[in-house]
């Protein structure tokens, strides 16, 4: 965090100080989550549907926060504003303005934002100090928290930008304007919120609309709805993909017995060999996007290829492969799920199993709208097609439909209603040597179960 006095913060957000020393400094994280407040930080009291952040103000101060950004005086050091969320956004704008040389990269898409952000962060770190926090704080409340991690020597800032409505990304880019914008794909995530893929494309394209003429729009040439966004930006357009027409592309892709891909990275700056440490052939386009971003800042292709080849998983629950002390290989891809990522994960599972028993633990995929049933049935068919040996579905009727589709095609299947029942079923069924994939929407809670199994903890105990 850039050190800022309370007087400077109040001026930036249009607030007034109450019970606070104007010269006191905020030197730590600016967060809306009272559980992660750190000494020297700032706590943002956001109103919520179930709880009001103002109720945790005293707790935040006791945890070390210097001040609370609040909508009313609270009897603790506070900067009072009319709208705390809007003020939080203005604070993010002010922080970035204090580092004028900062190169900002925005990443959006229906699938793969976090992994791509993590890859970009690791590649750009080879060029200079880079702020690219793990996880996916990508909303109007989460993005400012990530911005607050910028330091005086930060050269790059990589931000994930999510959307549930048209206009969400336009708002985020109005707070922090990227120099480079990456659009990965237009899928069906949050289709229930948007209503159509066309609306999703409209929302995702707001990122490239925000770019300046000297910026770069990095677009997936293999996704027609993304490629069409080239006409929506004043920036230079750089495409990535597997096809010959892509500016940055992968040639001669090979996958080894551990599920890791290697390829020739072909770019206008030349070609280089890349061997990913990340598991899954489907992550090759993510790596290409990261390379395309890096090429905006450097023409050192050897450095880019080396950084991609050494990049490791950063954010929890995204294709993390762990050898459990109990003898299982655990693939923790349980942070979230959609039809495309489910399909990719299942293909990786059976590739990695390579003769061992392939077990898939799949929760429902939420927010798919009218296509939800068909999407779940389709994933069940994929499970059979790729050769899953045993399938455990967890959650609602959509998850059960997925299991029935697989069972009709010959896959041994069981359905349970929740994570606790899944734990019991796995304790009965798993054997050393099994390769076990966990994937589903985050609300199903499979990530905790994957973590437990990966640690070698006995599933029969709580």
UniProtKB/TrEMBL annotation:
Keyword Cell wall biogenesis/degradation (UniProt): yes
Ranges where the Mur ligase N-terminal catalytic domain occurs: 31-74
Lineage: superkingdom: Bacteria
Main location as per UniProt: cytoplasm
Family stated for the protein in its record: Belongs to the MurCDEF family. MurF subfamily.
Organism for this UniProt entry: Couchioplanes caeruleus subsp. caeruleus
Example GO biological process: peptidoglycan biosynthetic process
Localization (cell): Cytoplasm
Domain annotation Mur ligase C-terminal: ranges: 317-441
Protein name in the entry: UDP-N-acetylmuramoyl-tripeptide--D-alanyl-D-alanine ligase
EC number: 6.3.2.10
Function text: Involved in cell wall formation. Catalyzes the final step in the synthesis of UDP-N-acetylmuramoyl-pentapeptide, the precursor of murein.
HAMAP family, per the entry: MurF
One Gene Ontology term, aspect cellular component: cytoplasm
The protein's annotated pathway: Cell wall biogenesis; peptidoglycan biosynthesis
